[in-house]
UniProtKB/TrEMBL annotation:
Pfam families: CRISPR_Cse1. Residues 234-245, 575-587 have a biased composition (Basic and acidic residues). This is Type I-E CRISPR-associated protein Cse1/CasA. The gene is casA. InterPro entries: CRISPR-assoc_prot_Cse1. It comes from Streptomyces prasinosporus. CDD domains: Cse1_I-E. Transmembrane segments: none annotated. Residues 234-253, 543-587 are annotated as: Disordered.
Length: 587
């Protein structure tokens, strides 16, 4: 597992080595479904035969993909423009230069090197010489309480391959909180360093594009340097081409994607013996503000922050748009397609920016390097932290298969209909939740529980159909008619769920009770009236898909005026205020 050499230092008989360029450590899935571990050399050599990288967590996979992209960008020194990218796409051996590059920098890829260990700080120590449990870097055992069951209740030992993967991950996703100070770090107060934020990727709503093979995945995310929406600096380079990190921080700013993909947000030192790793020293490294980094970081959507604009007295200010674990990727499709669809008249900056990685794929489509009917998988990965970002609560992992025509720069019609279709589902599911609340009111029961349960069931019932409908858009000649097909499907599905709720309401709901509405009026509310209100609301939410004035007909028509019975049910549906209601928008 390890190589040994004679040590030049007195007091040690041998120096261990674990060369990541030649030793297997990255988990992969082959095209035939089998799994194994490969070295960096093997990953690039066999990328066309591999389906994907496999992480212990989705966040680890995201961090490893970014590491591989940093290697590819640096080894190829580009691509410089879209023509160079097209040549790489057509060349089965496009990653051949990576082999010489890895050989040149092999010493910096040694996990156990005595002077420049991979992504670590040699000699890192606390004032008391403490060595911490590996729980501090293994994210499926958060400090304090194990949220995942893979390694309960403690991590006592890791193979060198496992440790290497978690070292990559800790720089990207480590929690915040108070950490033990390191000798040489001038931020230490009373033996501690106070919270400086999570790892860089922890603040992102991570997005990357998956192809059919790992080769396609790496190339589709390999953004050319002439991309207008991103800034590429001649000084942009990954961590292993910089001076080894010392304790503390030098306060520098990121230079571009290669730098951000390998950003050293922590200072780490593994403690090991000949068999594996048994402890770690972990402290804060280089903090980095997420504010207005949209021209450097391509793998997240961005949102304008009015609060930050007011505080800083500048505009616009963009922050990463993080993922909501309770919201499937298809429900947040607007964030993936957003900024090119906003008509600001050129006077106002967009409220959202879609991930620049998707902007890059849109360019490939618009300039004809990828066919309009090509299907891509937008992979969304992220973390929800809890208790002042000191623990990991949830990991977000989802995929959305969509035709690249949705990303076409000059033809936004398909994208607009895809977003509107997701809004159809959202309106219809809200109507279903209102039905559940009305049925609960009819019996005098608590409303929020039934309402939430009904909405969850509604979104679950529409999840698979929407994904299928979106994929089928690749073959749709008329996006408006395709949208109408979806509206009919939503109406049938949600109507059927409503029928079930009414049938299960029970005698008390059919008998009903006196209800006082928001205007002080009273009426008898029972399951029969709740049913009538439900049908009216659903009709207004989706309209008649065949009528030119129906919601989403492409004419921008308003929701038809209500002509149903009085009371809370018939009140016209409010216009959707996405900034106020979208769970993905975080302060």
């Amino acid at each position: 597992m390890t190589q040994t050499t004679e040590s030049p230092d007195a007091g040690e008989s041998e120096v261990l080595s674990f060369d990541l360029t030649g030793r297997p450590w990255i988990q992969v899935v082959r095209s035939n479904g089998s799994q194994e571990e490969l070295s960096l050399r093997q990953v690039f050599e066999q990328a066309g035969e591999l389906r994907r990288v496999l992480g212990d967590l989705a966040t680890q996979e995201f961090a490893l993909i970014r590491l591989l992209l940093a290697v590819a960008h640096d080894a190829l020194d580009g691509p410089g423009d879209i023509e160079e990218w097209a040549e790489l796409w057509e060349d089965p051996n496009c990653f051949a230069p990576v082999q010489a590059y890895l050989e040149e920098h092999r010493e910096r890829f040694d996990l156990l090197h005595p002077v420049t260990p991979f992504l670590q700080t040699a000699g890192l120590r606390t004032a008391k010489g403490e060595v911490f449990s590996l729980n501090r870097i293994v994210a499926d055992v958060p400090a304090g309480e194990p949220f995942f069951s893979a390694r309960m209740p403690d991590v006592g030992w890791l193979t060198f391959a496992e440790a290497a993967r978690w070292v990559v991950h800790v720089h990207a996703y480590d929690t915040s909180g108070i950490k033990t100070g390191m000798v040489g770090d001038d931020r230490v107060k009373g033996g501690k360093v106070y919270p400086l934020g999570t790892g860089w990727a922890g603040g992102l709503g991570g997005v990357f594009v998956e192809g059919d093979t790992l080769r396609e995945t790496l190339l589709l995310n390999l953004v050319a340097a002439d991309t207008e929406e991103l800034d590429f600096s001649p000084d942009d380079r990954p961590a292993w081409r910089r001076e080894p990190c010392r304790p503390g921080s030098d306060g520098r700013l990121a230079t571009g994607p290669r730098d951000l993909y390998t950003w050293q947000s922590r200072r780490v030192r593994l403690h090991h013996d000949t068999d594996g790793v048994h402890g770690v020293v972990l402290g804060y490294g280089d903090p980095l503000a997420w504010r207005n980094m949209h021209r450097h970081e391509p793998m997240t959507a961005w949102r304008r922050s009015p609060a930050q604009e007011k505080k800083l007295g500048q505009s616009p200010v963009y922050l990463p748009l993080e993922h909501d674990p309770a919201r499937s990727a298809w429900r947040g499709i607007a964030a993936l397609l957003a900024d090119r669809l906003e008509d600001t008249g050129g006077a106002e900056a967009p409220s959202r920016l879609r991930p620049r990685i998707l902007e890059w794929v849109a360019r490939l489509v618009t300039e004809g390097h990828v066919p309009r009917r090509f299907l891509v998988r937008a992979r969304t990965v992220g973390v929800k932290y809890g208790t002042q970002q000191s623990v990991i609560d949830e990991v977000v992992d989802d995929r959305l298969v969509m035709p690249v025509v949705l990303l076409h720069g000059q033809d936004p019609t398909y994208a607009r209909q895809a977003i509107a279709a997701a809004e159809d589902a959202d309106r219809a599911v809200r109507v279903l939740g209102d039905l559940a609340a009305d049925l609960a009111r009819a019996t005098g029961a608590e409303q929020e529980g039934p309402k939430s349960a009904a909405r969850a069931e509604g979104f679950d019932a529409l999840d698979h159909p929407y994904r299928g409908w979106l994929s089928a858009m690749a073959e749709a000649s008329d996006p408006f008619e395709h949208r109408h097909t979806w509206q009919r499907q939503v109406r049938e599905t949600v109507g059927r769920l409503g029928d079930r709720l009414i049938a299960a309401a029970g005698d008390a709901a059919w008998e009903g009770r006196i209800h006082t509405d928001t205007k002080g009026g009273t009426h008898w509310l029972n399951a029969g009236l709740a049913d009538v209100w439900f049908r009216g609301r659903l009709a207004r939410a989706l309209g008649d898909p065949g009528s030119p004035g129906a919601p989403g007909s492409g004419e921008g028509a308003a929701v038809p005026a209500d002509d149903g019975p009085p009371g809370p049910g018939p009140a016209g549906l409010p216009e959707t205020d996405h900034a106020a209601t979208d769970p993905e928008v975080h302060a």
